[in-house]
């Protein structure tokens, strides 16, 4: 008797976007009868996503079924970077990785192995399990400084914790200030709620940035200032608030530490003073201060971009302080929001193996990977070399600063590197072994959205290719080969880990999330708006931050101490010129902004994203181009002490004279000489707790002669 296979029907799956974006959008995914992913949409029933997602994620099937996706483990043949590979079986590849780690450990100690990862997936299980292996084996620690440190540090210096008004309150605000983030390109949901307020309430949208980007084009008031001068604008606006009676003195007397000291400090921070620093006109500064000063329900949406300078933490704290001077926190639709990362309370101790942590193990800075791999003694904490690495969820040869040092380090013949990836990235091209990784719809995970307020389940929706494995699988298999698989936290499935995290955190169990899809963790209005006091011991907002002793979300270990020029940080909000100021030799300031169709180095492999972005270009003001004899499409040279880059010129009024903007983290190989924009960016630590100043570079510019 023949038994017919049951007929499969198309269905709808529910998950969350895994990528390194604060929105963490809730997704509805069409699943075909053949078990493939079709259309991807924003979940309309999630109150933050509200049915809207970015175009690059909407076409995710293009990435999932890309013909160049890695499908089998590969072993290098010949010299590093030559591009010759041979297939290798999974077990053999994992055996070789374990053997290389044991060899490095025998020669130099356990710290010679450096597991390196980041936010290629924001799923807790698939991202953070590598830490459990690290701690169990006493491998070198990983200080993840590259993205959030300056922003988070500046924010908590004022509030004491990383939370704020419900970001959905933008829809009921009367003025939304989008400060230092190109939300149209990078956080489309911010615009969903801001535009709703404009349509329904007549709200004004203010955009503050360093060039005329797509978000600026949505502004009722757009302020284009010089890179790294945001604190000057904030200080002048606070000066005007005190001068013209917009400052809420009664609110500050109750909720702030030293409003009288701040007012005295701001006496000299006039609009004229700020105009000379920011490049804005006095009228622009006065107009901005008057708008937010007379609009009680002003919502300051503070992004990451303006903090990626060497004074970034100071800039964040200054912008945040403006909301406190105005008393904006008191009102629904008012206050200042950056991230809700502290509201979720998810206990990852078992997942990350924190019980195994040895405080004597050195901590290496992610942003200084080039210095680490090229033997810089300070970067290595004056200990031995890194001799072996496992890399998951990141592409440092493309995304890390000081690119020439990074590549030089990866080309060391004595360095063993295994990369677990979805595509043959430029980091994978320099590896000894490359393992194919699952994508987010092919494994189970759980997410939380720092830019919103939900914990979201990301269940496995489709089967991965037979030869592709998840991050968790690799960690578990290496643990077996390295002799730590019997430790607590190992031997669990992704679903087990999700269950354990939820139980340890006092959250509903997995069955709740399977039924409801997400959990809204937004605190009550009084807590979110700090009406019960700010999160410092005395309940006061800090106009006078203690830059070194205040707890911070990603503070380096005490044995590292503070990082960067901490002594230069101000007592009160102020403009601090620890940035790379233009000089006679380097008369331009270069900002490396995100592109709409890429996300870091992700999506730079998909045909549609590449076609929409075109090619690597640098934006140049017409006045600068004319003075240097540069025409549209010309090849120009940019340079500083870190390197030189050739790139095509785009002449545009979008940037002001003296400012250059290169959008998009293009692959290095997409550039004319095989070196990407990060050949020009620095890896020096940003005060007080480290970070990478990607948007803070002084350069020279000239027309290329050949």
Describe this protein's structure.
The chain has 706 residues and is an alpha/beta fold. Helices cover 29% and strands 17% of the residues. It contains 23 helices and 25 strands. It has a six-stranded mixed sheet with strand order 5-4-16-15-14-6, covered by helices on one side. It has a six-stranded mixed sheet with strand order 21-23-22-25-20-24. Strands 10-9-8-11-12 form a five-stranded parallel sheet, with helices on both faces. α8 (230-244) runs parallel beside α13 (312-326). The protein is globular. The N and C termini lie far apart (76 Å). Belongs to the prokaryotic molybdopterin-containing oxidoreductase family. Pfam families: Molybdop_Fe4S4 (PF04879), Molybdopterin (PF00384), Molydop_binding (PF01568). It comes from Rhizobium paknamense. Keywords: Iron, Iron-sulfur, Metal-binding, Molybdenum, Oxidoreductase.
């Amino acid at each position: 008797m023949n038994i017919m296979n049951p007929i499969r029907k198309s269905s709808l799956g529910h998950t969350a976007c895994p990528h390194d974006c604060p929105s963490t959008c809730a997704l509805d995914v069409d699943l075909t009868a053949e078990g493939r992913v079709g259309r991807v949409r924003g979940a309309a029933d999630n109150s933050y996503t509200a049915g809207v997602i970015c175009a690059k994620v909407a076409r995710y099937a293009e990435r999932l079924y890309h013909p160049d996706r890695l499908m089998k483990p590969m072993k290098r043949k010949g010299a590093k970077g030559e591009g010759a590979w041979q297939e290798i079986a999974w077990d053999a590849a994992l055996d070789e990785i374990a053997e290389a780690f044991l060899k490095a450990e025998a020669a130099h100690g356990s710290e010679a192995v450096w597991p390196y990862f980041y936010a290629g997936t924001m799923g807790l299980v698939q991202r953070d399990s590598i830490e459990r292996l690290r701690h169990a084996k006493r491998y070198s620690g990983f200080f993840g400084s590259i993205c959030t440190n300056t922003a988070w540090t500046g924010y908590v210096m004022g509030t004491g914790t990383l939370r704020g008004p419900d970001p959905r309150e933008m829809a009921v605000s009367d003025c939304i200030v989008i400060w230092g983030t190109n939300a149209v390109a990078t956080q489309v949901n911010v615009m969903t709620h801001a535009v709703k307020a404009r349509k329904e309430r007549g709200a004004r949208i203010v955009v503050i940035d360093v060039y005329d980007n797509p978000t600026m084009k949505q502004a009722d008031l757009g302020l284009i200032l010089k890179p790294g001068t945001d604190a000057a604008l904030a200080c002048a606006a606070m000066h005007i608030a005190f001068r013209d009676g917009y400052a809420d003195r009664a609110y500050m007397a109750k909720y702030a530490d030293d409003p009288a000291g701040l007012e005295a400090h701001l006496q000299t921070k006039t609009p004229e003073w700020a105009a000379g620093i920011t490049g804005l006109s006095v009228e622009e500064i006065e107009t901005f201060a008057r708008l937010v000063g007379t609009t009680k329900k002003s919502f300051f949406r503070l992004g990451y971009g303006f903090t990626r300078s060497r004074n970034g933490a100071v800039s964040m704290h200054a912008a945040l302080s403006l909301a406190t001077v105005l008393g904006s926190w008191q009102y629904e639709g008012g206050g200042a929001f950056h991230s809700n990362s502290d509201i979720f309370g998810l206990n990852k101790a078992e997942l990350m193996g924190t019980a195994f942590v040895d405080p004597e193990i050195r901590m290496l800075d992610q942003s200084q990977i080039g210095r680490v791999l090229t033997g810089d003694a300070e970067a290595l904490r004056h200990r031995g070399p890194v001799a072996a690495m496992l890399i998951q969820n990141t592409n440092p040869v493309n995304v890390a600063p000081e690119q020439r040092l990074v590549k030089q380090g990866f080309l060391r013949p004595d360095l063993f590197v295994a990369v677990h990836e979805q595509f043959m990235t430029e980091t994978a091209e320099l590896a000894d072994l490359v393992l194919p990784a699952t994508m987010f719809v092919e494994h189970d995970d759980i997410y939380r959205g720092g830019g919103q307020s939900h914990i979201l389940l990301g269940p496995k929706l489709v089967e991965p290719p037979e030869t592709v494995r998840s991050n968790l699988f690799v960690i578990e298999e290496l643990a077996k080969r390295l002799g730590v698989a019997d430790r607590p936290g190992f031997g669990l499935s992704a679903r087990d880990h999700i269950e354990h995290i939820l139980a340890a955190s006092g959250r509903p169990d997995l069955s709740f999330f399977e039924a409801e899809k997400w959990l809204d963790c937004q605190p009550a209005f009084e807590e979110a708006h700090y009406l019960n006091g700010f999160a410092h011991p005395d309940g006061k907002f800090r106009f006078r931050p203690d830059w070194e002793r205040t707890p911070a979300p990603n503070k380096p270990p005490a044995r590292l101490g503070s990082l960067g020029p901490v002594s230069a940080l101000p007592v009160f909000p102020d403009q601090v010129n620890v940035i790379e100021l233009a000089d006679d030799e380097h008369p331009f300031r270069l900002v490396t902004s995100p592109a709409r169709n890429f996300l870091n180095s992700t999506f730079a492999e998909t045909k549609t994203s590449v076609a929409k972005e075109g090619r690597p270009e640098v934006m140049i003001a017409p006045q600068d181009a004319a003075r240097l004899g540069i025409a549209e499409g010309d090849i120009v040279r940019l340079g500083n002490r870190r390197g030189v880059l050739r790139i095509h010129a785009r002449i545009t009024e979008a940037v002001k004279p003296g400012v250059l903007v290169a959008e998009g983290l293009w692959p290095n190989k997409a550039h004319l000489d095989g070196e990407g924009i990060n050949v020009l960016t620095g890896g020096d630590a940003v005060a007080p707790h480290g970070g990478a100043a990607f948007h803070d570079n002084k350069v020279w510019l000239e027309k290329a002669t050949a």
